[in-house]
Amino acid sequence: MTMLEITDFGKRFTIHHLGKTMPATEHINFSLEAGEFIGIVGKSGSGKSTILKSIYRSYLPDTGKILYDSARFGLVDLATISEREMLYLRKYEIGYVSQFLNVMPRTTCRQLVINALLEMGETEEVALIEAEKALAHFEMNPKLWDSYPNTFSGGEKLRLNIAMATVKKPRLLLLDEPTASLDQQSKVRVREMIEKLKNKGTTLVGIFHDIEFMEGLCDKVFDMQTRELTLAKETVTHES
Amino acid sequence: MHEEPILQVRNLRKQFGTGCKQCSDIDNRNLEKNFCKQCGTVYACQDISFDLYPGEILGIVGESGSGKSTMMQCLYFDADVSSGEAYISEPILAGKNVFELSSQQKRSIRNHVYGMVYQNPVQGLKMNFSSVGNIAEKLIAAGNRNVSEMEATSKRLLESVHIPIHRMKEEPRNFSGGMQQRVQIAKALSNNPPILFLDEVTTGLDLSVQANVLDLIKNIQRDLGISMIVVSHDLAVIRMLADRTIVLLNGEIIEQGLTDQVLEDPQHEYTQQLVYSLL
């Protein structure tokens, strides 16, 4: 089953104070089956994040289609779906993870994960248990559970973000440079986390500037430079 | 997804002044911002339309003078509209433009359907009544007559906004700004309104108290599923609270969208300036 299909996607930014319109990316085509993990690679500024943010509608797409097979609405175009429907999908079906935290002030790490569940209508008891499970699963140090995340490191913020997104059991999870600016050890943990998510059947789209690190984990790789989608296994055999 | 909006506003207009030849053409008013230089008429709200859905927080941002507060005053019947319609999805109000109802019917909507929290607590509270009395006043307006029940409700509400029990009988004029704002929120919630208006509620509060009030508002949305319109000039407040956001400029809606989209990918020149100014 095709979960996500992007056809001839393009996005421009009009900057009024410069009187200019700048293309961020154009002619993007790829598709993704349920349960697959696609890695998007390319240099900084090549438009990787633009694609991801447009799927999540943090950016307003201009051209092309972003077809998503929703459990609730069936096949929908995320580029034109109503705001209320997109909010529903964000709440129940599509998650977005980055190293940047943007959360309610003065709320503990534990409470943030609980809130993510309460928002979906879970009961307090279930939310409490599930939140602790998620924090433990992604190896968040229990000493940090009741502190405010302002002072968390990049890796810790990422783990909190992953816990907040995955407790909702999203069908599609978008990972925005989850390994950027992390040291080798933290990267290995991120890789393990992604592996766990994939084993649970989550469909994943991730952007990376160094794909070698994800080798063996991605099913497909989309290269921003060549605009080509390759099956990851092929690249592995080429290299070996 | 078929969803019925709880409040529909269509073509709301509010002008101060009678207008003249130069500014009476609706499509071409020749205004300086929202002001007619010829006759001095101010067009505070120009053709505002939007839907509010059950359980959502709708953010309204804009600079001072953009028409945010005027719009709220019109919706809450504090001011009459010049023209426009609003529909509330309550069985007894079905198909009725609430702006055209009698003042008695409007009062009934304020007592049973609406809650309002003003920027200045003086407008929402009787400063020389006790806090419990303030809430009881609203409960009585909503048809409640049982004194012990009203006192219990007042206590529960004031507790939920963290007013210490031993100060509940005190008059709000003795309270700090943040406490007054919380009493006002408790009062606005006392009739279990399905729709709550919040006008610049955190403006002028220090950051720590602001965090308290934001947390309180978010909890109210989550636990009670109340629909809210939050007006603020503070983008950070809107980012924390609102699911969807409308940007007003000179009384007109210039942009609307998902809150993070409006902040990360603003389309209109003014919104871009606003976002670039964010600290």
Automatic annotation (TrEMBL), chain A:
Keywords: ATP-binding, Cell membrane, Membrane, Nucleotide-binding, Translocase, Transport. SMART domains: AAA. It is found in: Cell membrane. One of its GO terms (cellular component) is ATP-binding cassette (ABC) transporter complex. Residues 4-239 form the ABC transporter domain. InterPro entries: AAA+_ATPase, ABC_transporter-like_ATP-bd, CP_lyase_PhnL, ECF_ABC_transporter_ATP-bd, P-loop_NTPase. Its main location: membrane. Transmembrane segments: none annotated. Belongs to the ABC transporter superfamily. Pfam families: ABC_tran. The keyword Thylakoid does not apply. The keyword Oxidoreductase does not apply. It comes from the Bacteria. This is Alpha-D-ribose 1-methylphosphonate 5-triphosphate synthase subunit PhnL. It is a peripheral membrane protein. GO terms for molecular function: ATP binding; ATP hydrolysis activity; ATPase-coupled transmembrane transporter activity.
Automatic annotation (TrEMBL), chain B:
CDD domains: ABC_NikE_OppD_transporters. The keyword ATP-binding applies. Keywords: ATP-binding, Nucleotide-binding. GO terms for molecular function: ATP binding; ATP hydrolysis activity. It comes from the Bacteria. One of its GO terms (biological process) is organic phosphonate catabolic process. PANTHER family: PHOSPHONATES UTILIZATION ATP-BINDING PROTEIN PHNK-RELATED (PTHR42764:SF1). The lineage of its organism: Bacteria, Bacillati, Bacillota, Bacilli, Bacillales. Residues 26-275 form the ABC transporter domain. PROSITE patterns: ABC_TRANSPORTER_1 (PS00211), ABC_TRANSPORTER_2 (PS50893). This is Putative phosphonate transport system ATP-binding protein. The keyword Nucleotide-binding applies.
